[in-house]
Design brief:
The protein is built from 7 helices and no strands. It is mostly helical and 211 residues long.
Length: 211
């Protein structure tokens, strides 16, 4: 049984297939760059968020907590807390809530940056690969129609040329799908933490005002 020689198959691809593969390679490299950078950032955010909650639970006043949080650079909980600390005591509860919500929305937008490209890669890459496959099959059968004898040996290179485009499309799309879903879960979790922080701050401010 002959093993698949990928390099030899790539050498025999048509110009159209090579263009499709080049496009898919760009999508794959770019999406992997996003995946790696986003994974590193979210890991730092997760660690700092755990530290944030420990500091927040131990703190007695907003100013004391704010001072202890100065070393945290990545977690979005800090900007949300700072927005509340700056407005606390100077505005009404409703205005404070709106300020915190704006800060949380800004942080979510920052976390979701470049996620659209992963979603695009996940949805578009298989279709780009399918286009290369369809084109390769059409070219293969067109060449077979002009051949004197129709044999499997004559059509096999064209079929292999066609199917490699689909394989590359899936290679680009599958990691993007997995990473996108994983990152969305983590970002939603952070969004929930920001909502919890907002409620706790508002409750603390209302309690202090009532006293």
């Amino acid at each position: 049984m002959n093993e698949l020689n990928l390099i030899e198959v790539l050498r025999q691809t048509t110009p159209v297939t090579r263009f499709v593969l080049a496009v898919l390679l760009i999508f794959s490299v770019w999406s992997w760059a996003i995946i790696l950078s986003k994974a590193l950032v979210l890991r730092k955010i997760r660690r700092e968020s755990e530290t944030f909650w420990k500091i927040f639970r131990r703190g007695k006043t907003l100013s004391e907590i704010s001072t202890a949080l100065e070393t945290l650079r990545f977690t979005p909980l800090v900007p949300v807390f700072n927005a509340a600390a700056e407005k606390s005591g100077t505005v009404s509860a409703g205005a404070l809530q709106r300020a915190v919500q704006r800060a949380a929305a800004a942080q979510l937008t920052r976390l979701e940056k470049r996620m659209n490209f992963l979603a695009t890669t996940a949805s578009v890459a298989p279709f780009i690969g399918l286009f290369g496959t369809v084109w390769g099959v059409m070219t293969s059968f067109a060449g077979l129609a002009n051949a004197n004898t129709a044999t499997l040996r004559a059509v096999a290179p064209g079929i292999a040329d066609a199917l490699i485009a689909t394989a590359f499309g899936l290679f680009a799309a599958i990691p993007a799908v997995i990473a996108y879903n994983h990152f969305v879960y983590q970002i939603r979790n952070l969004g929930g933490q920001m909502d919890d922080l907002q409620m706790e701050i508002l409750a603390a401010v209302e309690e202090r005002t009532a006293v």
